[in-house]
Specification:
- By secondary structure, the protein is α/β, with parallel strands linked by helices.
- It folds into 2 domains: 2-158 and 198-220, Rossmann fold (3-Layer(aba) Sandwich); 161-195 and 224-294, Alpha-Beta Complex (UDP-galactose 4-epimerase, domain 1), CATH 3.90.25.10.
- The chain is built from 12 helices and 12 strands.
- The chain has helices at 11-22, 34-43, 55-63, 80-98, 138-144, 169-180, 198-211, 228-239, 251-255, 258-262, 271-277, 286-294; strands spanning 2-6, 26-31, 46-49, 67-70, 104-109, 151-157, 160-162, 183-186, 192-197, 216-220, 223-227, 243-246.
- A 7-stranded parallel beta sheet has the order 3-2-1-4-5-6-10, with helices on both faces. It has a 3-stranded mixed beta sheet with strand order 7-9-11. It has a two-stranded parallel sheet with strand order 8-12.
- Strand 5 (104-109), helix 5 and strand 6 form a beta-alpha-beta unit.
- The longest helix has 19 residues, at 80-98.
- The radius of gyration is 19 Å and the shape is globular.
- The model has no long low-confidence stretch (mean pLDDT 95).
- It comes from Kineococcus aurantiacus.
- Residues 3-211 form the NAD-dependent epimerase/dehydratase domain.
- This is Nucleoside-diphosphate-sugar epimerase.
- Pfam families: Epimerase (PF01370).
């Protein structure tokens, strides 16, 4: 299978490229720069120059391959409307190009805002609909293509996809703690973050592209929920900093943009995903990897 991957040179994307190549597939990766293209080609993939705003490149990538994995996102947390608009346009462009082809189309999504008070399951429908909603309503939009001849799959990733070299949410929490001189958790810190090691995440993506049915919602989650107070405490102890509660109303002021996300309860089950894909996460836990963020 020849697979087109957006976000191919990013954190999850680069491991996903390696996973597909190791399984004998060919990869065409979207690259925003010559440097990104060179890194992709050094891994054994082919590069297609373009970005999320270059809709012609997205069409070309989807048209010329056997399946599409959409992992890229602008992640503009200061101006989320920019990210939401780009995400919706990209998903619609890719879906329209794949319509009637029967080819797989996996779209990365998140767990925020789906349910409250319990772990999210794969049966829970994402309430975000329309261009002004979370991620531009891209999960629901993508799954709509399951009725239009596309093997569309939504992959909801844990908020922390961790491992050596990660510069995502946990790295941002560590940077915020260093800057503030203390490690804070929001409220009483009982809200939880699910977690998954990046190699487990990449394997789940490959298995989904290879065989997940159209319309499937998948959870790329290994640990159902780690209390955020435990995460903050481990960071504080590792850095030799005090640990304490942050007022939820001041979370973004005291912790920065990451404070909003650190105050969310993002626990999720992946029991149905593991059973469907015969996927059994075996990588290090978040606790295993945290010391690497503190070096």
């Amino acid at each position: 299978m020849r697979v087109f991957i957006t976000g191919a040179s990013g954190w999850i994307g680069s491991h996903t490229v390696d996973e597909f190549l190791a399984a004998g597939h060919e990869v065409l990766g979207l690259a925003r720069s010559d440097a990104s293209a060179a890194r992709l080609e050094a891994r054994g993939a082919k590069a297609l120059r373009g970005d999320l705003d270059d809709l012609d490149s997205l069409r070309e990538g989807a048209r010329s391959t056997d399946g599409t994995v959409h992992l890229a996102n602008k992640h503009d947390f200061v101006n989320p409307a920019v990210s939401n608009a780009a995400e919706r346009a990209a998903v619609q462009t890719l879906g329209d190009e794949l319509e009637g082809s029967g080819r797989p189309f996996l779209v990365a999504s998140g767990l925020g805002g789906i349910v409250e008070g319990r772990p999210v399951t794969e049966d829970d429908v994402n309430p975000s609909v329309g261009p002004d909603s979370f991620r531009g309503g891209s999960e629901r939009l993508a799954l709509d293509y399951a009725d239009r001849g596309v093997r569309a799959v939504a992959a909801r990733f844990a908020p922390t996809v961790h491992g050596t070299g990660d510069h995502g949410f946990v790295a941002s929490l560590v940077a915020a703690a260093r800057a503030a001189g203390r490690s804070g958790y929001v409220g009483d810190g009982s809200n939880r973050w699910s977690a998954v090691h990046v190699t487990d995440a990449a394997r789940a993506v490959r298995l989904a592209v290879e065989g997940a049915p159209a319309g499937t919602r998948l959870h790329v989650v290994a640990e159902e929920g780690v209390p955020t107070r435990e995460i903050a405490t481990a960071i504080g102890e590792g850095l030799g900093l005090p640990v304490g509660s942050v007022d939820p109303d001041r979370a973004t002021e005291d912790i920065g943009w990451i404070g909003f996300f650190f105050g969310l309860d993002l626990a999720a089950s992946s029991a149905a995903t593991q059973a469907l894909l015969d996927w059994h996460p075996a990588g290090p836990t978040l606790a295993d990897d945290l010391p690497g963020y503190l070096a």
